[in-house]
Please model this.
Amino acid sequence: MKTYFPSDLKCVVLLGVDFDGPCHEVGRGIAPLGIHSWGRYSAKRGVPRHLEMFQRLGVPCTFFVPGYDAEQYPDLVKAIDSSGCEVAAHGYLHEAWEMPFEEEEALLRKTNDILGNLLGKQVLGWRSPSGRKSDRTMQVLKSMGYIYDSSDKDYDLPYRLRFSDGAGGTNNLIELPNNTYSLDDFPFYKFSHTPPSEVRDQWIDEFEHIYNSDGFFVLTVHPRSGWGSGTPSRSRAFEEVIRHIQQYDGVRFFSCAGFAQWCLANPHYLEEACHT
Model:
């Protein structure tokens, strides 16, 4: 019998939407036009479609938004926030390249300022674009007031991530690991071109096993067309997964920030890992 969470909380569900608009192409030096215009679909159709669905189903969600996309679509980012969903950071140009720490820090702070000024409040979390982190990334996030990271792939449960503060001491953030293969739309739609019905069945199967074991389900989608879940049939598959989950007892949907705050208030349920 698992005891990771209280008895009345059988399974935590976190839904994450990685905005990934035209920043994805612009960051690679590609004009987001013609065959490369997939990212523009996010703001035009994908995000509005997902927002409507979350409101209709009554579930929270976290949108991880790159700074460039927030600059291009400020009203939409404000609409995400006003809907009750969370806006978190996701790089500036969805950086997929190695960079010196000074450049990384400048981009982290740039996106934080863009989102904070746009929303009029503190951003609380970050998900790495393309999974890249340096040994000092967490120090910058902590200094900006972030309480969680959702980038690592090394565990099935949330944990306290302890790291050097750069001055001989330690700090910590809540780590919300995300599985970017079996619980992410990108590999299914980008590489294997899996039909939406099969993706739905895979995610439902993953949920049912997680519900009966660790009880921590983190699903990531992208509202782009092409390899994302913003189009009608893929959005429907996403909705069917949510509706299936809602049938189970003891399931609770959180935003990432909402659950990170729960973790901070209930640290005895978490393990701790050290990152150097």
The two ends are 33 Å apart (CA to CA).
